[in-house]
From TrEMBL:
One of its GO terms (cellular component) is plasma membrane. This is GTP-binding protein rhb1. Its main location: membrane. It comes from the Eukaryota. InterPro entries: P-loop_NTPase, Small_GTP-bd, Small_GTPase, Small_GTPase_Ras-type. It catalyses: GTP + H2O = GDP + phosphate + H(+). SUPFAM superfamilies: P-loop containing nucleoside triphosphate hydrolases. It is a lipid-anchor. The lineage of its organism: Eukaryota, Fungi, Dikarya, Basidiomycota, Agaricomycotina. Keywords: GTP-binding, Hydrolase, Lipoprotein, Magnesium, Membrane, Metal-binding, Methylation, Nucleotide-binding, Prenylation. It comes from Panaeolus cyanescens. It holds the Pfam family Ras. GO terms for biological process: signal transduction. NCBIfam families: small_GTP.
Length: 187
């Protein structure tokens, strides 16, 4: 298998302050910080072994979205898989997941995208506004994966990216190296 076959580009999206950067930071650097610094955009690289295969992953940590932010074409073109993050302490951020999902699907002119929906900050149980069953239902509705995580306590963080690779592989035709969203490449 050539290296080109194993390169995967993953975008992390969701509302502001839901814990996207903390999730990526914990995954890449194995650390967590309590203070909040809004992200503009950062890209990280990490190799991930999934089912015995090594994948060269490029992870794009995005600025938070809201219903009025247009989907940046950068997050729709050439992306293999998506990590859509809400906070279990914010119902609004959960409602944004379907909005962001629909925007990407619309922008790319596809019917579905490989993605994992993440309920972040699962250590904050006292402030919970979104029940696990609602997360699972949303994932089922969009035929994608779902998981709850805590970047603070390193719970299920690496699992997120394994699930994302799983969804990418599940949605890719054998021997396909380009994302299914390639149809929206703008020259
Ligand atoms: N308790 C707890 N707090 C968290 C967790 N993850 C993130 N936080 C806190 O939530 C705040 C926002 O986290 P960020 O990772 O910066 O959120 P973001 O989604 O990247 O924010 P934007 O860059 O604005 O889009 C920070 O104060 C973090 O310390 C978690 O798993 N548990």
């Amino acid at each position: 298998m050539s290296n080109a076959l194993k390169r995967r580009k993953i975008a992390v999206l969701g509302s502001r302050s839901v814990g996207k950067s903390s999730l990526v930071k914990q995954f890449i650097e194995n650390n967590f910080i309590d203070s909040y610094y809004p992200t503009i955009e950062s890209t990280f690289a990490k190799s991930v072994v999934y089912k015995g295969v090594e994948y060269d992953c490029q992870i794009i940590d995005t600025a938070g979205q809201d219903e009025y932010s247009p989907i940046n074409s950068q997050y729709a073109i050439g992306i293999h898989g998506y990590v859509l993050v809400y906070s279990i302490t914010s119902r609004n951020s959960f409602n944004m997941i379907q909005v962001v999902y629909d925007k990407i699907v619309d922008f790319c002119g596809v019917t579905k995208i490989p993605c994992v929906i993440v309920g972040a900050k699962c250590d904050l149980t006292m402030a919970r506004q979104v029940e696990p069953k609602h997360g699972m239902e949303l994932a089922k509705h969009n035929d994608c994966a779902w998981i709850e995580t805590s970047a603070k306590h390193d719970i299920n963080v690496s699992k997120v990216f394994e699930l994302c690779l799983q969804e990418i592989e599940r949605n890719m035709a054998p021997n396909q190296t380009e994302p299914q969203t390639k149809g929206c490449v703008v020259m």
